[in-house]
Amino acid sequence: MRKWRMLCIGIISSLLITGCWDKVEIEKRAFVALIGIDKFDSKDGKKNKDSDKTKESQDISRNKYVITIAYPNTGVIAGKGEGESKYIYASVGQNIRDILGSLNNRIARVMFFRHTKAIVLGKALASDEKMLREVLDAIERSPEIGRKINLMITPGEAKEILNTSTKDEPVLGLFIRELMEQSKRSARMADADFGYILRSLHESKVAITPRILSSKDQFKIAGSAVLKNFKMVGELGELETRNVMFMFDKIQSTVINVKVDDLIIPIGMTDSKTKMKVFEKDGELYTSFDIEAEGDLEQHMFEVKGQPLDNKYIQKVEKIASKTFEKQIEATYKKIQKDFGADLVQAGEYLRKHEPDTWKKVEKDWDEIFPTTKVKVNVAIKIRRIGVTQ
Amino acid sequence: MGFFEDLFADKKEDERIKMPVKKDYQENLDKIKEILGSCDDVIYREFNMAKEQKLKCVAIYAEGLIDTNLLNDYVLRNIMGLSLDTDIEFRSVKQKIYEAVKDGVIAVSDIKEVDDINAGIDSILSGDTVLILDKWDKILVIASKGWPMRGVSEPSTETVIRGPSDGFTETLRINTALVRRRIRDPKFKIKQMQLGQRSKTDIAIMYIEETVNKSILKMVKERLDKINIDAILESGYVEQLIEDDWRSPFPQIQHTQRPDVVAAGLYEGRIALIIDNTPFSLLVPATIVTLLQSPEDYNERFFIGSAIRILRFLSIVIALLLPSFYIAVTSYHPGMLPTDLALYVAGSRMNVPFPAFIEAFIMEAAFEVLREAGVRLPGAIGGTIGIVGGLVLGQAAVQAGIVSPLMVIVVALTAIAAYTTPNYSIAISFRLLRFVLMIFSGVLGLYGIILGLILIFTHLCNLKSFGVPYLSPFVASEMTMKDFKDVFVRVPLRMMKKRPEFLHRSDSDRLGKMRQDIKIEGGDSNGEE
Question: Is B515 a member of any domain?
Answer without folding.
Answer: no
